[in-house]
Amino acid sequence: MFKFWVSTCFLLSCASGYSATTLRVGSDQSYKTIGAAISAAEANDTVSIDRGNYTETLLIDKPLTLKGNTAELPVLVGHIIVKADNVQISELEISGWGETDPTADGITQERHNGLTVTGCKIHTGSGTGAPIDIGGARRAIVGGSAAGIRVRNSTKTTISNNDIYGCIKGIKIQSSHSLDGTYANGTIIANNKIHDCPVDGVNIQGQYITIEDCMVYDNIDLNFAKTHPDGIQFIAAKNTDGYYAVQHARVLRNTVSNHTQNIFVEGTSHGESSNCEDVLIANNVCYNVPDATVHGQKMSALPGGGIGIAAGSMNGGWIYNNTVLNVRRGIGIGDNKNGSVHIANNIIIGTGVAMRITDPNDLAAGELDHNIYFKNGKVMHWEKKFYTTLAEFHGAGSGQDAHSMEADPKLNPLPAPSLQSGSAAAGAGINLAQMFDTDRTGAVRSRKGPWDIGAFKSAEVSTRR
Length: 465
Known about the structure:
7% of the residues lie in helices and 35% in strands. By secondary structure, the chain is mainly β. The two termini are 30 Å apart.
């Protein structure tokens, strides 16, 4: 797709007698401000920015590449509004807009396609303190949605390798979708650090959204009772540009920590028309640090959990090979459509309640299985009854968790709880290669034979494909 676009642009440029060029911005360059270079640029040009501070609000209304050209990122004190297709923004620090525009986003794009943001540092405040410093935007925090990056009603969006912090929200995706029904042309959020934002790390709503290989942490402060900050949250919207909730999403290989809910699929408790469909949550590490205080909030006081699926929010969900530790509730499933939820190969440690299933009909026979439970207050909250041990749960005749066990999986320390030698998780899981074939590190899992349980593949099981 990219090669076709480039070659098409090249042909158009040749036909019009214009070839794309690079415009330099800096104290000793032809353009002293970024805005002046953008105004002078033609479609598909590159605006290359020297080191320095630039206090501007930028409007990009043509396909351009905007990039820093030094190892020390140029600093834009302001924000960027994108009103064009095929805009690329890279290697910039975008900061400080919250003092003058507290409800604005660091980068905003609505109803355009092909945005790429990579290698940027985005923050309106420092992300420190208690409550979090978000640079003047705090007066809009309750009900506010100002984000480091916000994209609405767009396709082919890539947000990768950025450090986003000290904003109200980290990344907000609304009604994004894919023109051809593929993940490659939907929204890809990959290899980002998203942290120290008081109202959610990542919000998503729309279709064909991938969140992978991200570090999402410490997005919480003393307002949590009002804002319910989550790490990765699926938003259940009524009708935003014709899109409802989230259909077709992949949440893979992320490490998410210190939130009310680390991964949360929102339901209809606030009157939204939800219906999340075709959601795979796999190879994630979710945990809180119980004895920590983050931005004034004690983690031990949080009411939430590792992975939560709210009532009425899931029609086709797969929760596979995750490692969940030290939260109030490990994995919780509200009342959803019959047979719509599948849970396997998860490690759950150190929770008050490891697993909560509100309606047993959500699970087809045997679709809750091959999990490992260790040092949990209670293993199961099944419908309206608690079971302290797995043996008690089996004795209730549920027919679920038949191959699961209570055992020490022998994990290495956080934040990378991989399996030690002799782990009970090694070779104890079901093979799920039809859904995905890597572990948390991207190491390939076997296409044949048993898998290791949890987010990490051990060195004890063959990787033959």
